[in-house]
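Checked the freezer inventory, then went back to the computational side. Two predictions to log before the end of the day. The first one is the construct we discussed on Monday; recording sequence and tokens without edits.
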Amino acid sequence: MTAIEYNRLKEEIARHMELYYNQDAPEISDAEYDALMRTLKAAEKEHPEWITPDSPSQRVGESAKRESGVKITHTVPMLSIEDLFTKEDVTAWTEKVLRTRPGCTFSAETHIDGLSMTVRAGSAPDGGMDPPLCETRGDGFIGEDVTANALMIENLPRKIDLPYDSLELRGEVYMTHDAFDRYNAIQEENGKKPAANPRNLAAGTLKQLDPAVTRERGLSIFIFNVQAGPAELMKSHTAALDILERAGVPVVKHRLCRTADDVIAAIDEIGAMRGELPYDIDGAVIKIDEIARRSDFPSGSKYSSGHIAYKYPPEERVVVTDDIVTAVGRNGKLTFTGVFHDRETGLPARLCGTSVSRATLHNQDYINEMSIGIGGAYLLYKSGEIIPKLNGCVTPPETVFKAPELCPKCGAPLVREPDTADIRCLNSACPAQVTRNISYFASLSCMNILGLGETIVDALVKEGFLADCADIYSLKERRTELIEKGIIGKEKNTDKILEAIEKSKSADPVRLLTGLGIRNVGTSASKELMKEFGTIERLESAAYEELIAIADIGPTTAERIRDFFDNPVNRQLIADLRAAGVNMSMPEDTAAGTELQGMTVVVTGTLPTLGRREATEYIERHGGKCSGSVSKKTDLLVAGEAAGSKLIKAQELGIRIIDEEELRRICNE
């Protein structure tokens, strides 16, 4: 390799690092990235004089994003782990350790495919340890405070039942397959781009400016290291993890190994169970268990001493297409799924420990480009950290698949949208769309009808109780029939849901507008629209020119709003909802409330009567702007029970701190 080629390679890897760490939008797989890094390191080994501090081999990872959160310096650097790609290299490393320090033992652990986060906790006056301060890795030395979002992670304890003065833990934040699939299903239904993989979505979710978004998407964490703590946690790594686990802290799967053979056996065991785990892993981490001995085995300035990671190789199989299944999403978008069998075995393909028989085919353009059709043979690729995808055509089919011209559910003509690859059914009464439309209308972010989930909605649609969203409000008239058929449940559960339906009538029209499912009109756009028009009736008659004059409402969205309200079926739906008593108007004081005008307000802890979403809506109704983090620009901090690091930061910055009662006094309530 020449020096010019080396510099080009550095630039290419640096670009991919930026995409992966800072933009959460990688263009290549981990395996391809690792191959580039191996080439770079080989060149630097041959020409050490080429190495400079800005080389990707000398950098840890991302840069902390100033706009996403407050920068924070780590008390213990959060370094990377050196990757090894063959079991022979793993054996050589473990044998070297044992030769140098006889009697050393090792911990073999799953390498979760997520993003690293440090959790700091201190002793609480009432015993145990107080809510933590949480920070991302950043460049290994400076990260950002993501405590507000981290406290939305369901399995991260709010209080750790251990009698220590201070504790610093490092963990991996990740997203389960179920949470990832749920998010992508919603994206597909809303006609939006799905996330590429759980790791990227987890990274973007942890750095959201609105903690409510983090909570809704659902993150999880495993602790994999004690960074700093009392002596009993700083001797044996596996013993420390066991102590944490007994205290209710979620810790990574780990196994104590004494020999190189034990380590390889553990790697094989972890590899075999990859397909059974509800989350992605892309390798196994091997650590010297005796923490004090790790410093005897440094691996360079960017790597943690006494650690290595074995990366499982990507897997690829030749599969044959058996079928291409078309389905219709909530917004009428046609989706394509390929059904395959392994050409060699005739069974589902075994990739990375999982049985794979299906893969998303995206759209007709993708199908044409890949020459996908029944009987065609293709390379099916899957690495531990990514979803299965086709990676090239091996044997073309006799005929490339062509999308149907009529909706597979209702028979209505399908239409390809101009300048896109999307094909849609425009029949809003299409059975495939009805259940999803009604479920979305009743969901938490819309009308918040607790208990009326997709399973119950589907049953009600099939039994003829529901044909559109307005029918929800006539269910009370069929209470006896519902109880007799047991669709919702017995009398108690039926009444509970009917009560939730009745309560939803008084929801503000921002929720109603969001629930109507107009494409491109989510919660943010709904807020802007209702702030401008005040009532659904005024919005219904708004001209295109009035719509595009509103911030964040572009020509495409304006057209879709007009298309929705110009449709006679939708106009009748609005009339039926109005007749049922559903609120169509913003409260009188919503637009007039200016008590918090121009103020940035942060909410922390648990308030007596307002949940986080309700508190945000309350503050915005009175002219304020809600933020998820404390900074010099913060005007007020509203603190409730168990207020954590944001309260401390506000005190340090001299920001005015109030409780919910004082907030209401300021707002004249």
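The second is the one RB wanted added to the comparison set:
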Amino acid sequence: MVDLENFYKQFCKEEFDANGVLTKFELTYKDNYNFGYDVVDAIAALAPEKRAMIWCNEHGEEKVFTYADISRMSNKAANLFTRLGIKKGDMVMLVLKRHYQYWFAITALHKIGAIAIPATNLLTKKDFVYRFNAADVKAIVCTGEGEVAEHVDAAQPECPTLQHKLMVRGKREGWLDFDSLLEQESDQLERVQTNVNEGMLLYFTSGTTGYPKMVLHAHTYALCHIVTAKHWLNNHADGLHLTVSETGWGKAAWGKLYGQWTCGTCIFVYDFDKFAPSDLLHMIQKYRITSFCAPPTIYRFFIKEGMENYDLSSLQYACIAGEALNPEVYNRFYEFTGLKLMEGFGQTETTLVIANLKGMEPKPGSMGRPSPLYNVDLVDEDGNSVPTGSVGEIVVRTPKDHLPFNLFMGYYRAPELTENAWHDGLFHTGDTAWRDEDGYFWYVGRTDDVIKSSGYRIGPFEIESVLMEHPAVLECAITGAPDPVRGQVVKATIVLTKQYTASEELTKELQNYVKKQTAPYKYPRIVEFVPELPKTISGKIRRVEIRKASQEQQ
């Protein structure tokens, strides 16, 4: 077996400090770099029998794919797409949940220079109509499970650019059978010439306001995830990595594809519909997962499930992203496993911007320090750097005339949105944080979510973290509500656990609980109990709806 541990180094130059923490990272790519050819095919040629993916599902099916398998099947898919008339620059949507065919299809699209649009299976007709027309989608490869295909069929009459519909795991009139057509195609493919600065991948962001924006990435995006995989997730050629994410979300690109395969890692994919903590813990135990990444919610479920009942000794590394980390989750997971959760931060428009990189000592609740890929700063509303300890917006300093390779190409077909987010040499993330004396960043909230009350700037996350530790609170959202004296006051919108019911006594108990755990001025003066919180399709809380309701009540 060829040693793949250093394969990724052909694409970059690195420098480290005395503790082995990455301090400098520079990409060294060729103009025609293409992930499909230069990573997947290259590793397949060097080590054809090296495992690339272990896939299994709820029904007991299991498949192991080598790099040679992925290379061969993506060639077949590339030939299929080409035969259907899909070419460089064409938009193809992939709604494939966690089906292994996703990896065949997206690698194939990269090879032929088409632009892949991963999307969630939660979309409905209205969502498809908007997305198909906004991006001029030419084809879709879609799961046959659930009602996705029905929604696509309902949308098609309003979407003139959609020409081809291919289905995985099912048959339906008007749809092509992706798997059977693949078998008919040749596994030989002549390299299509692409440029590293051309579009490769497009995501519709699940913003909390307005229609989703289209985030377009170039081929350099795949290379930037070397830092994500090697220096944050600690992926290596002998490892088996599991990131919990459906392929429709950007997190799948972070933890189930680009960086992992560039590092020669084998990815583990558990194809499930409904999350059950016991099932996932059993998979970690059974398959001897070595590195793991999930949002804090997953870890909270693990803790409630009882991790002591499972053998998790294979885990060497664990990371956390997707939402800010509550220190209580960090501490409980550490007690059970001896592993320190390494938090990271980034956006659909970026790769890993801030993180507790390998070799760093994490501070529970902190996002870590900036990645050497980015020049990160905290600024006030006028774009001026804020001092240590002060809250500011997280920005990336860039050249003034163009967005650099480590950021997205821009919001597709929306130059005004790009200009609004990137101007004066700053890319504005819209997230706020403060920085301590050691250079660690601590998340506060979205710029729109920061509450200004009686001269204080209050971030929602800290209060939400405190409330989440109370046994009565299942979910909560902290927002500002209008107040004639203070400008705004803190409002807590809370979903209770089954054991508790709303009452004045519980309201006072929760208010006093916050007062004892954090600065008294931060306690919620308004507490509202609701059956559920308003959320986006990706599960993000729509605080804007809560704020709007508060204004109407006022």
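For RB: The chain has 16 helices and 29 strands. Residues 67-83 form the longest helix (17 residues). Let me know if you want it refolded.
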